[in-house]
């Protein structure tokens, strides 16, 4: 079967081909009754708009690439939903890709999306090197950075003040009496994680503590998921003197830490406090409920999509939108033993 044409739609609706074109591209200039008649005719003959031909005539694509570190991670899943909701309002559709924090996967995703002629790319970069994103934008495909600062590039960006998030974590635990805190960190060169560690150091220093002694860094190997975080608990418990609290780089890592502590017979928070980061949907349902640093995930994604949609508007200027995280206190943190 061949794709139905505009001519067939016009004949079925009893209007001119230019009227059908207006319904497709400038519906506001067509009366409601005529528009409804044309839309009914499209359904009758099975007309489907040819997106490739539309782009050849200079119309913007209705697809947008969303390149995220891991779409299975609930933080990025919620960010992606915010993107999709805003794009859907504009009649666009998201193509979501995961890089697994691997440069080669990011490079391939950007290449394929450019070949597809997407309207733009919402990118959560795998590192602080942004050459590929800058070059892509320079060739005419707009790029908006997600959870990553613009870092002096001519790119729009949406970020969270992660330094403040780290400070909030430190302030909360110090106020409860903790003086030696483990921080689960990954090997990824991500500004968001670097910012959280810096915030922790600042918060401990502001409390008058000796930071090199008070903050115990515990690396979590790739892929830095629940299993790897659970295995890292042994290093936390073996540190001398033993830390009385653990700050995790995200809530998924906090789940792993809680599992490891339960397996080791360590009470939470009586024997060890645990603090996460993100406030994903299940954080309040854990046992005990997880104290965490909340990020505005849906708003983050929606704001990124809004910046991308604005790229084609007259007078658009690149800018960076920064959100502020907040501390959510639940029952996984308490005074040290």
UniProtKB/TrEMBL annotation:
Protein name: LacI family transcriptional regulator
Location of the HTH lacI-type domain: 4-58
Pfam families: LacI (PF00356), Peripla_BP_3 (PF13377)
InterPro entries: HTH_LacI (IPR000843), LacI/GalR-like_sensor (IPR046335), Lambda_DNA-bd_dom_sf (IPR010982), Peripla_BP_I (IPR028082)
Keywords carried by this UniProt record: DNA-binding, Transcription, Transcription regulation
């Amino acid at each position: 079967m061949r794709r139905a044409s505009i001519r067939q739609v016009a004949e079925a609706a009893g209007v001119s081909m230019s009227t059908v074109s207006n319904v497709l591209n400038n519906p506001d200039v067509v009366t409601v009754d005529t528009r409804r008649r044309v839309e009914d005719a499209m359904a009758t003959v099975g007309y489907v708009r040819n997106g490739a031909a539309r782009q050849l005539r200079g119309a913007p694509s209705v697809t947008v690439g969303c390149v995220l570190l891991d779409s299975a991670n609930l933080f990025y899943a919620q960010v992606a939903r915010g993107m999709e909701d805003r794009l859907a309002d504009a009649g666009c559709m998201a193509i979501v890709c995961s890089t697994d924090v691997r440069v080669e996967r990011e490079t391939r995703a950007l290449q394929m999306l450019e070949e597809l002629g997407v309207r733009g790319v919402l990118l959560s970069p795998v590192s602080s090197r942004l050459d590929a994103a800058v070059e892509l934008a320079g060739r005419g495909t707009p790029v908006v950075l997600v959870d990553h600062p613009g870092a002096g590039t001519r790119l729009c960006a949406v970020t969270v003040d992660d330094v403040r998030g780290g400070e909030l974590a430190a302030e909360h635990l110090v106020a409860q009496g903790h003086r030696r805190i483990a921080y689960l960190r990954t090997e990824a060169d991500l500004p968001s994680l670097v910012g959280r560690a810096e915030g922790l150091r600042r918060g401990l220093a502001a409390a008058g503590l000796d930071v090199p002694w008070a903050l115990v860094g515990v690396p979590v190997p790739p892929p830095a998921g629940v299993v790897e975080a659970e295995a890292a608990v042994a290093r936390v418990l073996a540190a001398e003197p033993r830390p009385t609290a653990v700050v995790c780089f995200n809530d998924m890592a906090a789940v792993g830490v809680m599992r490891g502590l339960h397996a080791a017979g360590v009470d939470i928070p009586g024997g060890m406090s645990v603090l996460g980061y993100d406030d994903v949907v299940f954080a309040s349902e854990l046992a005990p409920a997880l104290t965490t640093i909340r990020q505005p995930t849906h708003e983050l994604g929606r704001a990124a999509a809004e910046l991308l949609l604005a790229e084609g508007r007259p007078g658009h200027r690149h800018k960076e939108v920064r959100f502020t995280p907040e501390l959510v206190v639940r029952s996984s943190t308490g005074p040290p033993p």
